[in-house]
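Below: protein 1.
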Amino acid sequence: MMRKEITVKEEHEVLSLINDVAFANVPAWYDATRKTLKMSIVCPKVKKDHEPMPLMVWVCGGAFRLVDRAVWVPEMIYFARKGYVVASVEYRTSSEVEFPGALCDVKAAIRYLRAHAEDYCIDPERVVIMGESAGGALASLVGTTGGCEEFEQGDFLEYSSAVNAVVDYYGLVDIENVDLSGAVTHDVPPFTCEDWIGLNYTKEMARKASAIGYVNENTPPFLIFQGEVDICVLPEQSEGFYKKLTEKNVYAEYYVLKGEGHGTAAFYQDSVKDIVLEFLKKIL
């Protein structure tokens, strides 16, 4: 038996997970029904009179075929503890809609968050998007298409979907010039891009779905992580993207993880997350 009085120092504020936040209602089931898209938000529990915080939008991967916004929330808590509001967003997969549906969904999520910034302690002037694999592809597209009105669909169109920075974890950014036959595993079948872009897609269609084609002098800063021995998204993707960014005088940092493949645990260690924080500290 033991009774003891202790004094506890408050070293961090208490966070809350706000789940199932609906941000869009989109066509579903052969355009015959509707589907509500949702997000999960990690933000301060006590919001009254709270200082606005930078927003980190996270986009889950899954070869454009699967998405689960809850999967990476435990890893994203790291950034919430460091002063970010984190929103993990849902989007329609390739079995539900072809490009640019998923991109429009993620942009709709950003507009919703800006429209409701006060509800979640968000600073709408400091927004970063981050994603892995297919989510990295979508995050990169969001970053490079900030001024493309054709991808702005849905509600809250008076708000911008542009971001201040992008963190791309091994995203497919140049579909036009990828040889899928050389990058196929059981997780990424050869018809993955056909599902997403359209059956027998053309080079023009592939170019439109590739972030590298939109890079210009106004593109926000990028931080790129790539596995050295990735056979799903080949290193040439990130290499070429980094080269294009630097050619356009866009600030970019590029890290190759030695000996690592696609989506390995190494990418989610604190040492890598610290690199993300240092990058964002420079930009935001």
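Below: protein 2.
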Amino acid sequence: MTPKADVVVIGGGIVGAACAYYLCAAGLDVHLVERYFPASGTSRACDGLILLWDKSGTALRLGQASAALWAELAQTLDHEFEYARTGGILLIENEDGMPAGRASVETMDAAGIRASVLDGTDLRRLEPNLAPDLAGGAFFPDDAQVDPRRATLALLSAAQARGLTLHTHARVIAIQRKGNGQAGVSKVVTQSGEIATERIVCAAGAWSNQVARLVGIETPIRPRKGHILVTAKTPGLIHHPLLEGAYATTVQSASEDLQVALVAEMTAGGTLLLGSSRQFVGFGRSASAEVMRAIATRAVRFLPSLARVGVIRSYAGLRPWSPDHLPLIGPVEAAPGFYLAAGHEGAGICLAPISGRLITDWIMGAELPPFIGEIRPDRFNLVPGAQSDLASGKDIARGES
């Protein structure tokens, strides 16, 4: 018999896991389908930073709500996912950048978020191994970090304890609509079977547009590639996540060219994660030696002792980019019963819990925040799309066409 679900979530990354968790917590019968295994995509190829200083407006409101949910999840989930409120430091290379740093602090202050300006002496007191000629920075003591893979698994485990049915190695090949002139979806078809449902949540990250095409719509979500370098163990080299001032600029840019800005994050195991890069190169995920060199060069500029530290591995992931740098969260009017929770780009880790909570509120008919219109998918003109390559058997995840 074909199983029936209240909701089917497509995508086993951190956003899909958060959607499944909150939907199950609301008492719904939820099935989650993942083409490979949980956290097999971008959620295992990224840093785990929960940042607020790089956000403003609606993104900041989402970030504040999600940061509070992360703190709550750290207390309630059964499995450890290395949540730590370490604080974060914005690095300013020269005096020309100090006004922007002060403006970031003022924005956080106005939102009730703790922040302080650092001069060069303050900066080196917090991080003695930084280059001595840096002008200063800003400190945000409430920034946090998680292990994204562990967090994804912790959310899924908690959802399974609340009734989630998890389907792995189940690539979606079709979404059926209701017949007899009725609007809405009726069934998700995977490689391994069918699931009857009238509600589908697409949380497929960079591949969400391919899934959306199965219900006849085209979204503006594009894959934006990013690299991570992992160093040999360097315990104590840094004490807080570090990001240079140009990071926010690269996030907001829509340039097709390669962009690199320092991000450095210490893991619980003592290795250092180094990024970040941004480029539009399609769905290919192979690591580029040129990009790795650019990241390493930028890292050594800020942390000179890294010149003597080896890189033990590198990898690349695909961020789901949206044109206005806000996620697409909510129902799609052109496809009744189909919801999107995608387009987070580099903020997917930070915004996963609030995304799951908002999707659940939509489906349960709960009260929604006043800014919900700014993240609704229908703020874009979602036009009919061609049949997805997913349905034709081509594997976009591997870069095949």
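The chain has two domains: 7-48+149-221+324-398, 85-143+222-321.
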